[in-house]
Every structure is written in structure tokens, then in C-alpha cells.
Fold this protein.
Amino acid sequence: MSASIPIPFPLGESLWWTGYGSREEWVTCEECQGTCASVVVLANGETYSLACEACVSGYDPPRGIVKKTVRDFRPQTFIPKRVEVRGDEISYGAGPPNESCLSPVEASKLFSSLEECVEACVKLNEQSAIEEEKWRLNNLKHKKRDLAFSVHYWRGQAKRHRKDLEYAEARLHVCIEREKRAKEAIDSKREKKIEAHGLAAGADDGK
Ligand SMILES: [Zn+2]
């Protein structure tokens, strides 16, 4: 007795596939609007321009653009060249039988008619829009937490450096005072010497 599994599509037939569902695009950085700088205005009105951290990549300066993943399922033609059965899942490959670098496509993402494929794409796009919104909200929460940490960190740094600056200025003041006193001491010594000389000269004249 031989068992056979019916496959949904014969090899070599032109089908419609919902596609990868995502592609990457370069878009203008939302943080700096492409200017590569974040402008910070302090409470006292002072303005600082800092390099944008959102579009920086590694040690390179900010670029004003960021890579964004665009979620988009759209019908693509697909001609199955090989079939794979794993458990109860049937997948098709578009490459030759010995090609393993192209990932196989599940039969559930393939359709004989374009209308059915369009319908499936619309559903998948709706689903990924919901997931993206969830991800965006989560990301926003993280960002808020990161920003709160940054505010805490840089406020601490500013406080520390302000203290260092105060200390340095106090030390500078002490040094200036000391230098002044030392100079005064030297001057008064010199004056006394001149005076003494003068007296001695006067005594000589009186001889
Ligand atoms: Zn930027």
C-alpha cells in the first residue's frame, strides 16, 4: 500500500503570492527633520545645538535620514519549482530543486486567482498595521523611560560639573590672593631695602 499526499498546486503553474510583506526605505529623520541637530532651549533662554542621536549610525556623524521598514503585502507572481512537506505544512520553492538559499513559501500564502491574493494581502496588511501600532506604543513607552533616564543622568552630570566649576573658581581665587600677597611681600621687602640703602647713603653723605 502506498500513501500519497495531495499537493494544492501543481509545479510549474503560475500563481499569486502575498510577498515578503516588508521592504526597507530611507526616510527623513523625524527627530531632527533632516537637520542632523537637536536644538535644546534651556529655561534661561540659552540655546544649544547637539548632534541628533536618532539618525547617527555607529561612530559616523548623523545623516538626517533613517532606515524604515515599510510593511506592505502585495500580490507577486510565483511559479513553484519544488515542493516541500514538513509535518502537515506544505511549502513551495521558486528556485531549482537544489537551491536552498531562497526560503520556501507556505501554501497558505499562494493563490491561483489574483482576487483571492488581493483579499489575503488586505487582511495581512490590516494585521501588520495593528501589530505595528502595538510596537510603536511600546517603543514610545521605552523612549519615555530612556528620556527620563537621560534627564536624570545629565542633570546629575550638570550638578557635578557645576560643583567642580565652583571648586575650581574658589581654588583660583585663593591662588590669585596668594599671588597678590606674595607680590606685596616682595614689594614691601624691596621698599625696605631701598629705604635702608637710602638711610645708609644719607649717613655716608653726613660724613
Ligand atoms: Zn536626526
Observations:
- The radius of gyration is 39 Å.
- Residues 53 and 59 are 11 Å apart (CA to CA).
- The first strand starts at residue 15 and ends at 17.
